[in-house]
Amino acid sequence: MTTVEHLLGKSRHIWQQYYVHPFVLGIQEGTLEQEKFRQYMIQDYLYLVDYTKTFAIGVAKANSIPTMQLFAGSIHTLTHTEMDIHRGYMGTLAITQEEIDTTKPALPNLSYTSYMLRQAYEGSVVEVLASILSCAYSYEVIAKTMVQNRPECVDDALYGSWIRGYASDDYAEKNQVLIEMLNDWTKEYTEAQQQRLEDIFLACSEYELAFWDMAWMMK
Ligand SMILES: Cc1ncc(CO)c(N)n1
Q1: Hey, which of 89, 139, 204, 218 would you mutate to test ligand 1's pocket, going by the most ligand atoms within 8 Å of its Cβ?
Q2: I need a surface site. Which of 16, 38, 76, 193 has the fewest CB within 10 A?
Q3: pLDDT in tens, 72-128
């Protein structure tokens, strides 16, 4: 079993809750209140800024050029491609840069990014990958599950662009590189080292769930 298969097995009880979360189902069914999505987008934009910084610590801690390219490439994709989804919604939902700049991250958001950044600062490139993987990969699985459950969801005038972005082959390919890298780096890991990764991955998986809860509760 690979490290990532092991981590996914250990966190299955948390991930299963994503697919039936009212906010996620609201996107899938196209019934989510637009104002909730708008608030979520602003929070998620703030989230992505710190998430991107976590990759930047990966660049700083890399001990080879290919590793540096992996993290630097992710930064490029995040700021150019993934944030395009957000910039598109900023236009559609009339979110200004000023509104983003003056909005404070909600506590579950701040806690999540603070935890990731701490793992990255204190750990090695392995901890960086372990802390960003729940984020990167869960959105792929969630979006693909939406498409499986309700294929026409990709055509939704409001939520289709979000679903298509995260269910895309391009997004999946980028994730596959991260997964292979983490598996590769941890092949010889001892039980204690594996346990440490498991703690990080489970905490981030819980934080993802808390982020959906936050989005659902936001006024
Ligand atoms: C909170 C959160 N998790 C994961 C992703 C996917 O990058 C995102 N945009 N936001």
Answers
A1: 139
A2: 16
A3: 999 999 998 888 889 999 999 999 999 999 999 999 999 999 999 999 999 999 999
Query: What ipTM does the predicted assembly reach?
Result: 0.98
Closest CA to 44 of 94, 90, 91: 90
Provide the annotated active-site residues: 135, 208
CA 134 to ligand 1 centroid distance, Å: 9
Query: What's the CATH superfamily of 3-217?
Result: Heme oxygenase-like (1.20.910.10)
Tokens of residue 184, six digits = 């590769």
Instruction: Please give the single-letter amino acid code of residue 129.
Output: L
How far apart, in whole angstroms, are the C-alpha atoms of residue 121 and residue 115? Answer: 10
Is the pTM above the cut of 0.90?
A: yes
Structure token pair of residue 43: 């929070």
